[in-house]
Amino acid sequence: MNPLAISLLLLASAEPGAASPAAMFVTALTVFVLATFIGFEVITKVPPTLHTPLMSGSNAISGITIIGAILVAGLKLNFITSFFGVIAIMFAMINVVGGFLVTHRMLGMFRKKD
Amino acid sequence: MSSEINNIIYLVAAVAFIFALKRLSHPRTAVRGNLIGALGMLVAIVITILIAIDDPDISGLGYWLIGIGLLIGTIAGAVFAVKVPMTGMPQMVGLLNGFGGGASMLVAASELVATLPDIREALSSGTINTALYFFVGSTMAAGIIGAVTFFGSLVAAGKLQELKWVPNGNVIPAQQLVNALLLLLVLAGAVWGTYDLTKVWVFWPIVVIASVLGILLTTPIGGADMPVVICLLNSYSGMAAAATGFVINNNGLIIAGSLVGSSGIILCQIMCKAMNRSLANVLFGKLGTADAAAKGDDVYAGKVKSASAEEIGMLLESARRVVIVPGYGMAVSQAQHAVRDLSNALEARGAEVEFGIHPVAGRMPGHMNVLLAEANIPYDKVKEMDDINSSFEQTDVAIVIGANDVVNPLARTDPKSPIAGMPILDVDKARTVIVVKRSLSPGFAGIPNPLFAADNTLMYFGDGKKAILDLVAALKAAA
Predict the structure, then answer these.
(1) Which of the 8 DSSP states describes residue A64?
(2) B49-62 residue pLDDT tens
(3) Average pLDDT value for residue range B250-260
(4) What is the ipTM of this complex?
(5) Catalytically annotated residues of B
(6) Nearest CA among A71, A15, A18 for reference residue B4
(7) What is the 3 state secondary structure string of B48-83?
(8) DSSP H or E run through B357
(9) Residue B386, Cβ neighbours under 10 Å: how many?
(10) Which of A68, A77, B82, B341 has the most CB atoms within 10 Å of its CB?
């Protein structure tokens, strides 16, 4: 794995609990910037043939927001948060399940010359 | 469970996503990559459910809400994924972009509502923590990006599905100016609400304005520019997830979101480069009008030769190398399976058949490749523009199916043309060019195509699918 990825992982796994809010924000921002660079590096290597599966697959990945959705729907007790939360879970889950499944379906169609 | 362990597990999920994208670099490894990504997501979801159950704040209703949400989302997602035809992938991806953005927007809104009591208390006791400013700022960002993504994607998906009631073109006077003002308003509101926490209610109006902005930004985008917008909205859905990561302080969300964000941006750049236009030009500009270019009648008058299936069948009989260039028209007439039959018939006669794909062919990046893969055409016969262009001079017959602007030689020859400088597939260099098309109508750029009137071009008028099937029959009859 390249140095960029390693520094990202070290940073992201550091427990920010004791740090000041500003330091936490800076850490999060650093993680964001490094991950963007990793994204650029990895995704430029995806060939045009696979650009459609790349988009549906990355849709599934952006469904990660389901983490936030589950927590607000389950824990924050008032009508608005529960209502928004449950819709957010549905939206994100459609992304996750629909995204990974349709990507799987598509990738299964690509075959080599026999 | 300690939050350190939770964070490590989210990190594992993020690493799984990176591996998933890395393995997309080859069709052979991609299937496994996608499964790794899905596994990472499963781990993230399971650990989050465990965290929720473990929390003393969870209520009986909470269990139900989580369960129902997951169930409905799973069923709806699975139905979408299984039912969608490959020709409908652009709409599907458009819709998924929207759901991602919408989910992030709703999470941000809920978090804000849940934190309001803390903000009020901090304001009244005068003990405002810096963390609150970061929280509100990120919430504003997630709300704005999420709203633009959600409503922009709905319009984009509706247009791709060709729903009549979805607005097309400019819907209000001076739309670009209004959009610029709305954007300024949204940004100013976000800064104001973050700077002065007593004004945090401004979140709601700016999310509404951002929603309107998402719609107004997308309505004027024309058909062939759709790939760029879909990529951009893809990127936004990632950015919205990353912003939500800042809101709930979760590195897993930040990493996954920024991966998706950069993916969309890269695809956007590739699309723009393949049209020789800037992103700003695609989003806000108009292609030059057709009056600047020569009128169709002058270009075509008396020079267009058309041929029947039998004549073309005879021509193909002796061809040694054939290159097929599909465009959006192939998707519209669902001709990919007929094209596969044609390719098989040609190969049975000993010809070499390859496919040339322009980066912006179709309505999303890689659209043609997926359709050809669906029709069982091996991916190693499907070539990118740069790889196949040099081979057209050694090609006996180039067959263009439902493509127009991407094979228009004016892009090379006429510096005043609206498509000047756009890289094209050099089909005109093949010995004979066969263009399968309904009529001589212009493509998205609205300009005539001198290729249709060239000496070595034969027009083969008809609906893509039927025309190709007739051709296959003629070729078999000739045998």
Answers:
(1) G
(2) 999 988 887 878 88
(3) 95
(4) 0.91
(5) 405
(6) A15
(7) HHHHHHHCCCCCHHHHHHHHHHHHHHHHHHHHHHHH
(8) strand B352-357
(9) 10
(10) A68
pLDDT at B273: 92
pLDDT in tens, B107-120: 999 999 999 999 99
A23 in contact with B, Cβ within 8 Å? no
Contact A84 B106 (CB under 8 A): yes
Tell me the one-letter amino acid at B8.
Answer: I
DSSP per position, B122-134: HHHHT---HHHHH
Q: Give the residue carrying structure tokens 């439902």.
A: B402
Tokens 């039959």, residue located: B341
Residue B382's DSSP bridge partners are B355
Other CB atoms within a 10 A radius of the CB of residue B330 amount to 30
Backbone phi, psi, residue B382, to 5°: -100, 115
User: What is the arithmetic mean of pLDDT over B306-332?
Assistant: 92
Third-level CATH fold of B291-478: Rossmann fold (3.40.50)
Contacts of B351 (CB under 8 A, 6+ apart): B316, B319, B320, B321, B322, B396
- Sequence length of chain A is 114
Q: Which of A6, A55, A111, A113 should one mutate to test binding to chain B, selecting the residue with the greatest count of B CBs within 10 A? A: A55
For chain B, give the mean pLDDT: 91
* Helix, coil or strand: residue B194: helix
Q: Where are the beta strands (DSSP E) in B80-219?
A: none
Residue type, B156: A
Helix axis angle, B89-125 to B203-218, nearest 10°: 160
Q: What is the pTM of this model?
A: 0.91
Q: Which residues of A touch B197 (CB under 8 A)?
A: none
Structure tokens belonging to residue B72: 């409905």
Tokens representing residue B122 in the block? 């901090």
Percent of residues in chain A assigned helix, strand, coil, to nearest 5: 80, 0, 20
Q: What would the pLDDT profile of B406-424 be if each residue is shown by its tens digit?
A: 999 999 998 888 888 899 9
Q: Where are the domains of chain A?
A: 1-45, 48-114
Check CB contact under 8 Å for B77 and A51: no
Among B478, B437, B474, B434, CA closest to B341: B474
Strand partners, B352: B321
For residue B231, the chain A residues in CB contact (below 8 A) are 55
In whole angstroms, give the CA distance from residue B283 to residue B263. Answer: 19
Domain range list for chain B: 84-284, 291-478
DSSP-derived secondary structure for B266-300:
HHHHHHHHHHT--HHHHHH--PPPGGGSPPHHHHH
Pairwise CA distance, residues B382 & B274, whole Å = 18
